[in-house]
Fold each of these.
Amino acid sequence: MALMIDLNVHYAESAQRFLQTAIVIDDQAMMGPVETIVPVKLETPTGSLFGAEPDPEPQAAIGIAVEERSAPSSATLNAKILSQAFLDQRMICGLYRPDVGEDRVSRASGAAGAADIVVVDWHLETGNSRPAKEIILRILQNDFEAKGRLRLIAIYTSQAGREAIATELLAELEHNKVLQGRFTRDGSDIGNTSTRIVVLNKRTTPEAADRDEVVEERLPERLITEFAKLSEGVVPSFALASVAAVRQGAHHVLSQYTANLDGAFIAHRCGIPHPDDSKSFAVDLITSELRNLIEVENVAEQTLNDEVAEAWLQAKIDRGDTFRTDRADVPADRVLGFVRGGSVAVKESAEHQTGFNNPDGKLGKDHKVTTGTLARVFYPTAAAARDGVQQLARLSTFQREPHRTRSPQDWAPKLALGTVVQQIADGVSGAILLCVQPRCDSVRLSQPTAFPFQTAGGEGQFNLVVRDAAGVDHQTWVNLKPRDAVMIRFIPHPERCAVFARPDPETGRFVFEAEDNMAFVWLGDLIAMKAQRWVSELGSRVQGVGMDELEWLRQAGEGKIRAGWT
């Protein structure tokens, strides 16, 4: 039997592939021995080497002596050793040594926006942690305004008492209106699902109960390990490795798209009936290249293979986790078999499932675990399973959503095929609608235009998970029959010749306003292929041919009656 994969090593390898840059902010950073300039008074010798008469009075001269000395502060950081250690990990380390009086917060937070890891000294002024706190708060606020990002901040300090530092910083976060309630502390670590703040000690830190000394030579390696904790999991590791592949191949892609292609592209643009269509043509070229980078690096095979999935399940078993719903218990060995056996193995496990928390100790057929309820056994509660499955459902369905999509300040959603909206009247949320207007009929508009929408609703069945205007996830059914369509007229933008949402200054949500002043909150845009598939299904309903047919022959055509009369 092959050795089980060490998941911690697996996660760290993905993190190491991804990480490229770090910024170190420390006012005591030194690039080597400290040099002190010492003025020395020199006197002209009384006698000449050539036998000439000396000057009547010796003339004084000023000489410069360079004295090497050890660091003047116990908090000094050896930046040369640290930068070399980062290079050994194939990472670039930037160094910022702020001075009192300069705009440290803007400069440091700006650099942090381009850095994978931020390292900051706790005291950027002697005995004063205020500058470091201001820098950290600005970085976290910027991340929040950008809809979040993976962020590791290491406080690298010679101050004793790591837990006390973390407590002090968390109190500062709780006083910030934007960041309040978004972080928790575990010992000397602060974080949430996408952010991690750790406190580490320099070699010169006094002895303390929670001292965690990390010398400069070992700091990059430790930071990679800490960053990997942010991306622990099968899916996070895959995502990290995928982005790493794109990063590493980006310059290769750029080298293929040279100015030599300009003439060909402009000719294409000028030669098609609607020149603006060339924009989507160009976008498709680049996105295809980026997908190819992930595929040729074999990222999915390396991070989502059988061995990784089995290691993930085995880790749960080793922790003592069980695989059960509120009624059924599935044996661990059977669950391990699901990785390679798939849906067939899940179905075959039914006879081995036992009743759990049932009054009679038996397990009814309706309570057995199936492929439709399988996710429940991998979560501690039904609510956690629901949240996890619904989140993945939205990620696999929506290309853009207001709560997770980063967008430029002047960007606004455009109404077209796949746009999902919710009607709002007097502040009350109403029907959810899917726009099915073809993309070509959603542009180059010069007058009020009717847009077709399919309504959503119903109980029990669902084919879409959508987060509504109130931020609540709903399982809803999009009706794909012509009879369930509604037409709503919108006025296009006079210059951009399409219908765009406007930001609501009170709620911050994007709102489409119809010609009759009805308001529709933008909930997201479906992935193009998903929207096109549904429109094709809708079109097939329109093209359906209704006719009276001999029932016996109709059933035979469906394979329900076989030839012969026996």
Amino acid sequence: MTIRLYASFTLLALFIFAACQQQSGVRKQPKARDTTHYSKEEYIEQSLDSNYVNSFLSANHAYDAYDEYIQNFYRKRGYHYAWINKDGLTEQAGNFINMMKNDAAYGIRDSSLMNPALQKLTDTLLVSDVGLKPGDTSIPRLEMLLTAQFFAYGNKVWGGLTADSAKDLEWFIPRKKIDMASLLDSMVNKKSNAFEEDEPVNRQYKLLRNELKRLANLEASTKWDSIKTTQKSFKKGDSAAVIATIKNRLEAWGDLPGTDTSSRFTVELDSAVRNFQLRMGMKVDGLIKQNVLDALNTPIAQRISQVLINMERLRWVPLEPTTDYILVNIPEFRMHVYDKGKLDWSCNVVVGKPGANTVIFTKELRYVVFSPYWNVPPGILAKEVLPGLKRGAGSYLARQNMEIVGASGKVISPGSINFNKYSGGNFPYIVRQRPGPKNSLGKVKFLFPNEYNIYLHDTPARYLFGENKRSFSHGCIRVAEPKHLAEWLLRDDSTWTEKKIDAAMNAGKEKYVTLKERIPVFIGYFTAFVDSKGNLNFRDDVYGHDARLAATLFGKK
């Protein structure tokens, strides 16, 4: 009987955009414990010849990186087909092909994913009007191509760049681990749309992929000429011909509902401008100045690249934790606090200035330290503190409320030290600032011990939280609502009342509190993201990480 395919072979013509990797440098999948559950009653009746599997892999070196995984997958299922049954392609085969087709159409494409052999098979099927017959060699070949492509696609689209490449790009959050064989077995046996529901990617990745589709449609359907004006600013109530063009651009973005073509700056336009400013990380004042026009003039192709760059980063990160955790997004200058996996609250933060970058990594928060000392780090000691001590140690220490201690913690008189013979690298003592209102760490700090000496803390410089771009620190992260964070971390301990926390913050005596449960802290870097209200946001590339990743992904200089 002729086998009729479940999905139209027209889909297969687009399948070539996501075929197997051709380059010999394909990333080897990490070893993982085999947790696949195999149940014979779930299998398709037809089986492959094991010799065919061996010969296919021997003849197709593009799949060498996945040889062992493909062999094990079929061996443990008794070589039963995964993608083709007596009626043709399974539902999940059609879903997988559709997913790859859509990814290719909306920008997730790579020249290394083109397979001439698959192209030839697809062309043959398209011109044939009799379908596949029993014994047709296209049947096992199509089965094997689909399985091999699953590993290649998963490696590229769900795994992304290698861990070493990510570290070269200053990303030190451990990579997620994917058991691809178990995932494949699970997906092909599900009746629902497993390829959308069970993708091993962070939810933010899926949200950005949806926005990528919208941007691709916007690029294809909208004329995106540069908006120019000699007037420096527009506000509510103003009139000018260029305002009609600005309205059209904001309507295209979805910030301004309706189709207002007038040249008057209306109340509705004021709200739309504020929404756009919020999404772009600007000062929200409703004024159309050059920074707003620059953002409106940014080509859609550039925004698409920005989304793709951040989707690549999201391939590296773990799935969303279902526990409590804290996320700091450096380019957003915001901290987000999650209670059992759900966003609870957010606040502004100050991060490291360029050249003193806050590092991208993750550790577990273990301690809350009230009324902390501040041990001056080597860099600040060499550049700022030692020069002051050499000019006049006693007066400098008094002004800064600092003291010098030895390794034992004993305070040392500055008069007993010849500061002129030391630099930051060979200074044998610790300079620390005493607890108090002028302490650089404020009244509380939050420690997640790490090799970068980065932590969250309060600050006496409260005015900086009102700045729009908040990269001012030496690398640590200053928190706008430190008391709120302390209360949140200690909320399950009834002994730590608000009154007790206030007292500890103002005690002038350092006190360590060990958390009963450690809280994961993720320091991330995302310049494109979808916020909790479903709005697409963009931020400036404050450390130049986007530019370096773009060079890796797209070959841009």
